[in-house]
Design goal:
This protein is mainly α. The protein has helices at about 1-5, 10-60, 65-79.
């Protein structure tokens, strides 16, 4: 009983450990967000570099450009 009376009893211990768990959980969430953000950047750079070529292929398939125009534009994109 004496430990509970001086303010360091169950409430002090609970809030102390609760704060520690909050910090640990926040750190884990921050690491997960950081890792996902890094993987998204990689995916976007790969996606953005192939998208113009995909658009060019679509335009050729739709008949909007000729094969000669396709070849010329493709070479330009690959430079």
């Amino acid at each position: 009983m004496h430990g509970m009376m001086n303010g360091t009893g169950m409430c002090g211990g609970f809030f102390g450990y609760g704060f520690l768990w909050i910090v640990i959980i926040a750190a884990i969430i921050a690491i997960i967000v950081w890792m996902r953000k890094g993987s998204n950047t990689t995916n976007q750079s790969q996606s953005s570099s192939s998208r113009p070529l995909e658009t060019l292929k679509e335009r050729l398939a739709k008949g909007e450009i000729t094969e000669d125009e396709y070849d010329r534009l493709k070479r330009k994109l690959e430079q």
